[in-house]
Amino acid sequence: MLAEISINITAKALQQTFSYSIPAGMKVRAGSRVLVPFGSRKEEGIVLSIHEDTEAATRTFTLKPILAVLSDQVGFREEMIQTALWISQYYLCSLADALRLFMIEKKGISQRTCVEAVPDAVALDGAEALVLDYVSRHSHVEKKTLEKHFAPDVLAGLYSRQVLRDYLYQQNNVADKLETWLSFDHADTEGTLKRSPRQAELLQALAQSEPQPVSTWVQKGYSHDLIRHLCAHGFARLTEKPSRTVNFTHALAADTPWQLTEEQQAAVETIQRDQGGKTYLLHGVTGSGKTEIYMKLTADVLARGGQVLVLVPEIALTGQIVRCFVRRFGNDAVVMHSQLSKGERRNNWLRMANGESHICIGARSAVFTAFHNLGLIIVDEEHDSSYKQDDVPRYHTVEVARRRAAYYGCPVILGSATPSVGDYYKALQGEYVLITLRERVLHRPLPDVAVVDMREELARGNRNVLSDAMVALLTETLQKKQQAIILLNRRGFSTFVMCRKCGYVVKCNTCDVAMVYHKNQHRLRCHYCDAEKDVPLVCPSCGSKYIKFFGTGTEKVEEQLQLQFPQARIARLDQDTKARKNSGDRIIEAFRREEYDILLGTQMVAKGHDFANVSAVGILSADSLLNLPVYWAGERTFQLLTQAAGRAGRGDIPGKVVMQTYAPEHYVIQCAQKQDYQAFYEQEIAYRQELLYPPFHQLLKIVIVDENEKTLWETGNTLALLLQTWKKESASDTAIIGPFVDIIKKVRNKYRIVLLVKGKDLTEAKAFIREHAEFRRPGVLLDVDSAG
Ligand code: ADP
Ligand code: ZN
Ligand code: ZN
C-alpha cells in the first residue's frame, strides 16, 4: 500500500504531493501526521489518501517508507481533505496551508532540530563513542542538548564525517496534552521486546490495562521519550479524550421559545422542507427575529441527533447570540474563539468531533471544526467583512461553509438585514433560496431616521461635531431615561496633527499615513502598525509653534458629550477600549444592564446587538467610508448605517435616528435613511454591472510588498508582463490592471503596489498563476475574490 502525502515545505509547489510506502504493520490513515524522509532531512507530512500501489511493476525506483506516525488528527475526514484541496485550488494557497486550517492546533506543533546517528559507524575515539552512545540511547535528541553535554570540536568531527546528522522534528508536545491517553496497539511485539527491557515492561503493562492518561504512565516512571518511541513504531497509540468540564459554569436562566410570527413560521417551514442541502438567504429587517428562527431549526436538528454550526462575526461582540443559544440548549453548545486556552479549544473540538456536543458557535475559523454529524450551518450577519480572512489562506467563510455543508447534504442559512450584494444577486439568480422577513416582530415599527446636512449646519454657524438635531435627540432620550448609541467610525482624539504655518502633517515613520492623536496617553499613534510618537511642541519641518489637531475621533466625542451632558453615564467601545481582555463583551453587557446611558463607539456598536431600552441612535459621520476608492464603499456604508439604525426601537419603545452627513443626496444615504434594501440593491447592482465589478466579474488582487521601491516595481512589471503575454496568447478577455500604488503607499516600511486581474471567469487566469513560480515569490500576496 502507498500513502499520498502533503509535506509542509511543499508550500512552494502549491498542490504537489508525494508517495511513500507504508511499512507492514504501521497504522496510517488519511489525516495522520507522519514523519517521512525528504531529501537528506526528515519532514512532517499529512497523509491525504491511501491506495494500492498500481505502478509498482513499472517503477524504476523504490519508494521510501514512512518513518513514523506522529499523531492522528482527531476527527479528520476525507471531506476535510477535499475542502482543503478546493481551498488551495480556488484561493491559490498551498495544500499544506489549507490543510493546516483543519488542525486543532495550528501553531501548537513544535519544531526542533534533532540529531541522529548513522548506525555501524567505524573508528571512533573514546569521546566520540560517548556521544554516539548517548544519541543511540535516546530518541530524538535535540541538537541544543547535545551541544550542552559535549565538546564542540568532538561534535564537529562527527558531523563532518556524517556519523551524526541533524533533521527537523516536529510534533505536539506530549507533556502539553494531559488529556492524551495511551493505549496498546500492536499484536507483534517480538522485535522491540528484545531491545529494551523498559519498553517491554511498558508494553506489557499497556496490553493488560485499559487506556489511561499519559500522565499516569509518566507518574509510574516511564519517560515521555519512551512513550513517543513506542508510538512512533506503532506499538502504542495516543488518543485524546475530552475532559468532563463544561463551558458555562455561570448559570443562565433557561428560556422558552417565542410563539413564532407568521413570517418567522413561513421561513422555518421553507427550510424544514429542505432536501439535499440548499443555501438559504434569510433577509430579515433588523429586529425581525432571525435568532428565533435559527433556534427553532437548531432544535429540529438536535432532535434528529445532528449537529449545528453557528458562525458569528466576532465572538467578543456577539456574546448575545451565545447566551440565547446557551439559555435554550444548555451545555450542549460549545464556543470556539481566540481567547480559549489550548486545552479548552482542544476539548471543545473533541466534543464536536466525537458527537458529544451538538452545537458549535464561533467566529470565522470555527468553520473548520471537525463534525460527527453536521445537520445545519448558520452564518449570522453574513455580510460582515470579518468573514473574509485577510491572511493566507484568504478564504471566504461562506464559501467554505457551503463546501462543507454539501458533503453532509445539510442546509446553510445566511442571515442578514443587509445581505452582501453578491449573495443577494445569487439569490435572485436562483443559486440560493431567498427568504424575506419584511416586518419587525410584533409589528414594531422600523426607526424613524432624520438626515442632517452638515454643510447647512456649518452655514448656520454650528461648528460643533454634534448637530442641533443630535443634541435635541440625546436630550430627549436622557430625559426619558432611555438609552442611546452613537456611532463614529474613527477612534482616537484627533485624526491628524498639522502645522498651520507650513502644512506639515505628522506621519508614521514606517507607514505612509498620518498619525492619530490619543489624548488619554497624550501620544500620537499609527493605526496601521501601532507605532507611537510624542506630540511635537514645534513643527519638525519649519519650527513654528502653530501645531494644531484636526479631525474628530471617538475620544474627542466622548469628551464633548460629557461636557454637554454632564449627568450622562457614557461608555466608549472601540479598538482601544476593547483591547483589554473580554472588555468588549463587558462594556456591552453593562450597557444592557443600563449601567450606562450612552454607548459611543466605532462600527462595533452596530453589530447585531439587541438592547430593549435603546430608543435613539446617532450617526456622526455617515459618509466616512463612502469616498474610499474601492468598489464596495457604497455597500459597506449602506450596511453600516442600516445596521446602526437598526439598533434603535427594538423593544417596546419606538426608535429615532439622526444621521449626520455631507452628502445627503447620495443614494446610499437616502436608501439607508429609508432602510430600503431593495432600492439600494437596485442602484448598486446597476453600477456594478456598468463597471463590471463583482458579482459580474471576479476580482483577483495581487499585492506586492517590498522594502525596496525599485525591486518592488520590477516585480510588479514582471508579473504584469507575464499576465499580459498569457492574455494575448490565450485570447482571454480578462483585464490586467496596474501595477499601481496601493491606497496606503507604505506600511511597516514596506512599499505596496497592486495588480488587478478582473474577468467574468478567472479559472484560467488562476491556473496560469498557479503554474508560475514568479507568483509565489515572497512579498507577492494573492487575494482571490478580494474585498480589501
Ligand atoms: P434580528 O436578529 O432579526 O435583528 P432578533 O433575533 O435579535 O432580531 O430579535 C429581536 C427581538 O425580538 C429579540 O429581543 C427577540 O427575543 C424578540 N423576538 C423574536 N421572535 C419573537 C416573537 N415571535 N415574538 C416576540 N418577540 C420575538
Ligand atoms: Zn511647519
Ligand atoms: Zn505605522
Automatic annotation (TrEMBL):
InterPro entries registered for this protein in UniProt: DEAD/DEAH_box_helicase_dom (IPR011545), Helicase_ATP-bd (IPR014001), Helicase_C-like (IPR001650), P-loop_NTPase (IPR027417), PriA (IPR005259), PriA_3primeBD (IPR041222), PriA_3primeBD_sf (IPR042115), PriA_C (IPR041236)
EC number, as in UniProt: 5.6.2.4
Residues annotated as domain Helicase C-terminal: 534-693
Limits of the Helicase ATP-binding domain: 271-437
Entry keywords, A to Z: ATP-binding, DNA replication, DNA-binding, Helicase, Hydrolase, Isomerase, Metal-binding, Nucleotide-binding, Primosome, Zinc
Catalytic activity annotation: ATP + H2O = ADP + phosphate + H(+); Couples ATP hydrolysis with the unwinding of duplex DNA by translocating in the 3'-5' direction
Protein residues bound to Zn(2+) 1: C499, C502, C539, C542
Record-linked CDD domains: DEXHc_priA, SF2_C_priA
PROSITE patterns: HELICASE_ATP_BIND_1, HELICASE_CTER
PANTHER family reported for this sequence: PRIMOSOMAL PROTEIN N (PTHR30580:SF0)
Protein purpose: Initiates the restart of stalled replication forks, which reloads the replicative helicase on sites other than the origin of replication. Recognizes and binds to abandoned replication forks and remodels them to uncover a helicase loading site. Promotes assembly of the primosome at these replication forks.
Protein family according to the UniProt entry: Belongs to the helicase family. PriA subfamily.
Protein known as: Replication restart protein PriA
Organism: Megasphaera hominis
